[in-house]
């Protein structure tokens, strides 16, 4: 089944359809229905943003980027020496025209596919990994609707997804899906010891030509030993003029 990923379901806060109210019957079916609305909320137009990632740690500077996405492709472009006046030296492309998402990284004119075993790797040394933009948890079987609670922007469904693959870092993922927009506005990921290892949360949104898009969000990485302080990266996007 084709997956939708971070950029589509976060940057295009598309409303749910008329079937937004889900019958209170089978819990797993409810959760799957909600996530399927997220999964297939593809934008039909090409959108272009300028952005920046600010890792909040000593020695890391702001990382400028370009972002393009539509119903078939998402592309990140990064600049040499993290300087937006210099040439693009790295691109990361997510191609989801087929049943599976293909993740390609081009660095200094050499292109390679990012395989499953490498999806946990960090992008540009930030707290954002390939796994965080692919979001494999949307296809994990038998999600559970835990409750409805307040999140950014109002009430949200809190859904738990359990990973059938025990070899991956994320064992359990809790997601909050806005009842108003149908977008994921928060995520907590836990390892097999039930310790939180990653989170993201939408901080602000922006309206562009009648549609809503993410403006800022924060991504946090937690040490697996649970003893050190988490690191974080702040993402901001503005539409290209």
In short:
The protein has helices at 6-11, 27-39, 130-134; strands at residues 47-55, 63-69, 73-79, 88-95, 102-107, 110-113, 144-151, 154-162, 172-178, 184-190, 196-208, 211-221, 231-239. By secondary structure, the protein is mainly beta. The protein has one domain (6-239): outer membrane lipoprotein receptor (LolB), chain A, CATH 2.50.20.
If you had to describe this structure to a student in words, what would you say it looks like?
The relative contact order is 0.18. Mean pLDDT is 83; it is low at 1-9 and 11-24. It is globular and about 55 Å long. It contains three helices and 13 strands. The protein is mainly β and 241 residues long. The chain has helices spanning 6-11, 27-39, 130-134, and strands at 47-55, 63-69, 73-79, 88-95, 102-107, 110-113, 144-151, 154-162, 172-178, 184-190, 196-208, 211-221, 231-239.
Entry keywords:
241 residues, mainly beta, outer membrane lipoprotein receptor (LolB), chain A, 3 helices, 13-stranded antiparallel sheet
């Amino acid at each position: 089944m084709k997956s939708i990923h971070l950029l589509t379901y976060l940057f295009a806060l598309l409303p749910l359809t008329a079937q937004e109210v889900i019958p209170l019957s089978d819990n797993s079916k409810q959760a799957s229905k909600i996530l399927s609305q997220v999964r297939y909320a593809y934008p039909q137009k090409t959108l272009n943003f300028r952005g920046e990632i600010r890792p909040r740690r000593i020695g890391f500077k702001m990382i400028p980027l370009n972002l393009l996405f539509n119903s078939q492709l998402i592309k990140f472009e990064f600049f040499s020496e993290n300087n937006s006046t210099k040439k693009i030296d790295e691109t990361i492309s997510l191609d989801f025209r087929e049943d599976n998402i293909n993740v390609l990284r081009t660095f200094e004119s050499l292109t390679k596919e990012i395989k499953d075993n490498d999806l946990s790797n960090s992008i540009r040394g930030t707290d954002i990994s390939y796994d965080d933009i692919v979001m494999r948890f949307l296809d994990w079987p038998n999600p559970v609707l835990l409750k409805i609670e307040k999140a950014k922007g109002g009430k949200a469904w809190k859904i738990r997804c359990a990973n059938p693959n025990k070899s991956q870092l994320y064992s359990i993922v809790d997601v909050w899906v806005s009842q108003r927009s149908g977008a994921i506005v928060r995520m907590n990921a836990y390892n097999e010891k039930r310790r939180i290892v990653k989170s993201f949360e939408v901080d602000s949104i922006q309206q562009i030509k009648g549609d809503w898009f993410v403006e800022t969000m924060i991504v946090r990485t937690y040490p697996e030993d649970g003893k050190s302080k988490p690191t974080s990266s702040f993402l901001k996007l503005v539409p290209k003029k």
